Amino acid sequence: MAQNTTQIIGTHALIQKLHHLIQKVARTETTVLISGESGTGKELVARKLHEQSLRNAQPFVAVNCGTIPGDLLESEMFGHQKGSFTGAIGHRPGMFQLAHGGTMFLDEIGEMNPVMQVKFLRVLQDREIRPVGADMPFKVDVRVIAATNKDLAHEVEAGRFREDLFYRLQVIPIMLPPLRDRRSDIPILIEHFLHKHNEGRPYPITISEEAMVLLWEYDWPGNVRELENTLERLVILADSPVVRPDQLPANIRSFLSEKKIPRPKLSEEGMDLNAAVEEFENRIIDEALRRTKGNKQAAARLLGLKRTTLVAKLRRKRDADYTAPQAYNY
Ligand SMILES: Nc1ncnc2c1ncn2[C@@H]1O[C@H](COP(=O)(O)OP(=O)(O)OP(=O)(O)O)[C@@H](O)[C@H]1O
Ligand SMILES: [Mg+2]
């Protein structure tokens, strides 16, 4: 594989530390356990580790323990001999054989069932595998990198993941931070993905400063993947060269209106107290309804109101909302 094709974007101190760690670990044979929320770049880091390793001319093979049914995982990983189970036609190599000399990436390792956990631990210890139905094991030369979006230590405590395997895997643990813990990288990532998705367009799409503030403030539960998907969609759907706040996805805008309840100030010109109180009330009611998924009875209880009082307030609010900006724009 060509070197330096995998780009980990970011200048935050946590990302600089990550680069440093990758440099130190890549050229070793150590097992690595990468953990982090969905979309934080676990697979990206695994590919980078392989790319920077001495094995980079050999294959990088990824196996997702969460999507392969438990009873098939063993033959997927270790291969099988002819007739070892119904449907096993001929010899079939497993991922370990395909990854020989290279790197095996075991994604969602927390989903591996207890029987496989035992077999896999043995492979890590003895560096040999036994295909399903084979009499003899044979040596394999594979570097293992595993990833999880679960808290594996917690899985161990709960008795769902073997402690011995956990320690064997996390010789080097790499924890990837969620995007909201390194917000200063958001503009850099936006720049990177805009550039990527603007390619081949008649004119490039840019993000207005006001929209950038909102993208910065948003919490990004789907992390970098969510950010990239959002930008791709914005570029595809853009009708004008500059993306403004009202063109951002509804979930981002509603997240922010919940997060930021404005604090009205009494200025020199005075203020309309009734309007400010009403505005505040409406936002709290909105939040109560969002939390109770629209159940008015439950929302009223949450607010210490009678249901009829809440309904009356909602009727008043609905009249005011009539001029509200469009809720969905894509
Ligand atoms: N620092 C980064 N720089 C550039 N791209 C990134 C970065 N982090 C993640 N990405 C991109 O975001 C997407 C998600 O990354 P990746 O698949 O590695 O995440 P993951 O942690 O494996 O997610 P999941 O748990 O959902 O499988 C990919 O398209 C990846 O290229
Ligand atoms: Mg992944």
What does this structure look like?
The chain is of the alpha/beta class and 330 residues long. The protein folds into three domains: 165 residues, P-loop containing nucleotide triphosphate hydrolases (Rossmann fold); 82 residues, Helicase, Ruva Protein, domain 3; 61 residues, Arc Repressor Mutant, subunit A, CATH 1.10.10. A hairpin with an 8-residue loop joins strand 4 and strand 5. The two termini are 40 Å apart.
Number of discrete domains: 3
CATH superfamily of the largest domain, called what? Answer: P-loop containing nucleotide triphosphate hydrolases
Distinct compounds present: adenosine-5'-triphosphate, magnesium ion
**CATH level-3 fold name of the largest domain:** Rossmann fold
The value of Rg in angstroms is: 26 Å
Helices and strands, in order, run as HEHEHHEHEEEHHEHEHHEHHHH
Shape: elongated
